[in-house]
Amino acid sequence: MAIEIEKPTVGLSKVAVSDTHGEDSPYFAGWKAYDEDPYDELCNPSGVIQMGLAENQVSFDLLEQYLEKHSEATNWGNRTFGFRDNALFQDYHGLQTFRKAMACFMEQIRGGRAKFNPDRVVITAGATAANELLTFILADPGDALLIPTPYYPGFDRDLRWRTGVKIVPVHCDSSNNFEITPQALEAAYNEAESMNIKVRGVLITNPSNPLGATIKRSTLEEILEFVTSKNIHLVSDEIYSGSTFSGEEFVSVAEVLEAQNYKDSERVHIVYSLSKDLGLPGFRVGTIYSYNDKVVTTARRMSSFTLISSQTQQLLASMLLDETFTANYIKTNRERLKKRYQMIIDGLRNSGIECLKGNAGLFCWMNLSPLLEEPTKESELILWKSMLHEVKLNISPGSSCHCSDPGWFRVCFANMSEQTLQVALTRIHDFMDRRKAMKTSN
Amino acid sequence: MKLLSRKASCNSHGQDSSYFAGWQEYEKNPYDEVKNPQGIIQMGLAENQLSFDLLESWLAQNPDAAGFKRNGESIFRELALFQDYHGLPAFKNALVEFMAEIRGNKVSFDSNNLVLTAGATSANETLMFCLANPGEAFLLPTPYYPGFDRDLKWRTEVEIVPIQCSSSNGFRITESALEEAYQQAQNRNLKVKGVLVTNPSNPLGISLSRHELNLLVSFIAAKGIHLISDEIYSGTVFNSPGFVSIMEVLMNKNYVNSPVRNRVHIVYSLSKDLGLPGFRVGAIYSNDKMVVESATKMSSFGLISSQTQYLLSEMLSDKKFTKNYVSENRKRVKQRHAMLIRGLKNAGIPCLESNAGLFCWVDMRHLLSSKTFEAEMELWKKIVYQVGLNISPGSSCHCIEPGWFRMCFANMSEQTLNLAIQRIKSFVNSISESNNISPNQQYSNKSSRRKSFSKWVFRLSFHDRETER
Q: Which residues belong to any copy of the Aminotransferase class I/classII large domain (chain B) (predicted)?
């Protein structure tokens, strides 16, 4: 039998072996603890409650009711655009009806204050794909995007991993409610320059994750002024736009552009998805809306790598073109999220814990800095570990969101039942009581 | 103007090629039996429209699958929330069993080694990202699917170096062609990371022989590189020698414990075999845990809709259905293939003898005014504009010999195919009448090979972007 000599082999790519996928961060370690010991009201009442997952489970009944009444949305029947046509449809323009539906839905969410042209909607399999795709288009490897902190941990992977693009943080802190200032933008830009890194754009999430707050109109105007003066791009990830607690407080960058007659709009691109507002992360529905023709054309071509299943496009086209349904959904969803938010804020306040004043999203930004031994990231992680192992709550530490102020945590409230949320609040209350008792006894 | 990235500004998306130009013409003037009988018939699209009735009847008998129900109970919430990049277990299990079924159950697959992606387009690109660094190369036998130029190179910045195949031996892959390609890459200072083959081949429509597969495995073993086998057409093999999967070859005693097993990766999809390109169902299969792990994480950028995963998990778990589908679909592809071959033969047009695929590799060298790619373009334009058939010219597939065309036969009704055949026949008759040449004359092509090779290289570097490395 021939002895095989182990010849040198080529192995995998640098991208494959790097850890820029970010899965070694505490953000994911918490998930692991939850997976190993998940809370269940009946089977495992002392398990870890998952408060690190920004999912929207409060409005499924509305979707289920719609599906019950409209079976034609999921079975192909004898329509003109039946099963065959749907199954064959792989055009990267996406179903025209679906694009129209997305454009209309986005308009409704913004109370009609901005108009969207279906021909500028590019489809992608989720916002994850949309953000990566835009990064490929707007920046070269080694270039940078400026992102205000704290930001969604997934960006480290989504924007950097395969693209080779860097993130330079725009530092925001609690001294002014984490608002983005022109000074902070300028400082980040200069920092990049000093490292010889070319800045290609600013990426904001509005409403913000993890802050759970909308960005003020004046701030948006300042950001637009900044990107225009530097001749760079602006990506506005508006994935939580339908999750604002009131209809009026959210100002989309689209509205600001419309107010200035779309001057300098070719540098602006909006990302949207149905994963949060409609609670459909499994369906992989994302879009890029760009005011730049070349970006639209290029994004469309690139979307070949990440198209939305035509079966799913068909379903959502039906649903979202039904304006009675969408108007009711948007309104009811907002009310329920507001109620949940109020519940958690009150519950935390009763425990002596304050949060950043929020008005949107599926989470609140909780301030536990008074509980830190020292105002350091290490102390924060120690506190996070006790929340995870002692209190049995998986919440996201601010450091995983690149927050410069230690002690802040993102706590999700929409991915569980009210009862479970109550259990979580009770556990926090008890935890805080124990700490007070320990302090007084010392 | 706001500057975009180099990737956005180059034309590695490949959409300027003739492959896409023909589509554009078709879109301006598409054939319709009733509304536009003079329009262009689309023969450039490798779609499988032959077996939809089988799918439709299954759907009618199993309404729960598309209605988010399992055993009558709604699982809507569960599916709506399911975004785990490991994929729906029931779907992966059903898919690997389907893949085994297509291979006559001569091989079996472990669903833990399967990664789901939004189509084979995504699978191929993802494998490039996992296996090659920017500026490195993969060797591909020519002619190959034009989409690879975009899928494998665009965002990954990987290079393709051709393994030249010619009609002298039925376009089979030879050892010398492999070595020559590897040498070419060295000359261009490109590090070769692997070979990518499509089996059965697009555009040739032939399944790779055991000899070719063994050659490939020894070649990659010797060079220490990867092999990707895109088996997207594996369910369309309708004639002997039947489909031999690369996995079957690896079961050979020489390779059972060899590290080469971990460097062979399969790409699959339901776009061709099941005719569901719109549903974006692709997969990567690999024995290498790191590749599976890395590709799984990357699949976040292109997951399959859970709605679709569920529908297909139900459908593919129905073994009675899949067994019948696979055999019936094969029969229909075989019949259509025979129809086109016959029709072309009557027009004095030979085809490469093939046993698979949704297209024929058609030899129109004898209709060229000269043995050049210019003449091929001339002929192609006539066929698109005068004859009214959008077929794919061999040059768009990087074929080194001018005069070959890919003609699809499974994306239309029988009547339309007959019409297409009639149009070709009339066209050929009109040429022979005007030229007084027997349409059966064929020319030898050896001398044009060198010229066409350098033309190919020129075309390749023209599409290359300037890199700063």
A: 41-424
